[in-house]
Design brief:
This protein is α+β, with helices and mostly antiparallel strands. The protein is built from 4 helices and 4 strands, in the order ααβαβββα. It has helices at 2-93, 102-117, 131-140, 172-192; strands at 123-127, 146-151, 156-160, 167-171.
Length: 194
């Protein structure tokens, strides 16, 4: 009987030891599983944060590039509209001599140019088509000048000293070009609010 009790005691002790080992193994498995879940969660969170940062950087790059492209398109469009407006004005001004107001316009252009040159001897460069009209205007202004018909322009004149050290261009084309530069910002502001 003592031998049986000893066997029973050893068996119970082995079963208890097995239970302890199983419990420890189960606890170890649960701990490893928990740690693994935490690590997976941390890795997932890290990947998610990195993906968000990368997406934000790509989004900002895309926005920056798109804004640049849009700005470039806007500038190109503004320039086309501006050029078209001046091309249209230039086409109208090509026919200025047919306008009944042209003699008054040429008179004003002549007064302005002659007034700028002063009392010096000067030349009046004109298009051949304006010769009779400019003679009449100079006579009315009581101005004596040498008329040179060497221009090919839509209208107006160039007044210069004989050595051309002073030259005042008051042709339709030169006035249009000066207006183009002066009015560019005003036209952009009117078209696009600034």
């Amino acid at each position: 009987m003592a031998y049986e009790n000893l066997l029973k005691s050893v068996e119970e002790s082995a079963q208890e030891r097995e239970r302890d080992l199983r419990e420890k193994a189960t606890n170890a498995i649960l701990a490893i599983s928990e740690e693994t879940r935490n690590q997976v969660s941390a890795i997932q969170q890290s990947f998610l944060e990195e993906a968000k940062k990368t997406a934000a950087i790509e989004k900002n790059k895309f926005i920056y590039v798109t804004k640049g492209e849009n700005k470039e398109k806007l500038i190109t469009t503004k320039e086309k509209i501006f050029s078209a407006a001046f091309a249209q004005a230039e086409q109208r001004l090509l026919q200025i001599r047919k306008d009944p107001r042209y003699p008054g316009i040429l008179n004003n252009l002549t007064r302005e140019a002659v007034g700028t040159i002063g009392n010096e001897e000067f030349l009046v460069h004109i298009d051949k088509q304006d010769e009779p009209l400019i003679r009449s205007i100079l006579t009315d202004l009581k101005v004596v000048a040498t008329i040179v018909t060497d221009l090919h322009c839509s209208g107006g004149l160039i007044v210069s000293t004989p050595d051309e050290s002073i030259k005042i261009s008051n042709t339709i084309e030169s006035r249009l070009e000066r207006a183009r530069e002066q009015k560019k910002l005003q036209i952009y502001a009117a078209l696009y609010g600034g």
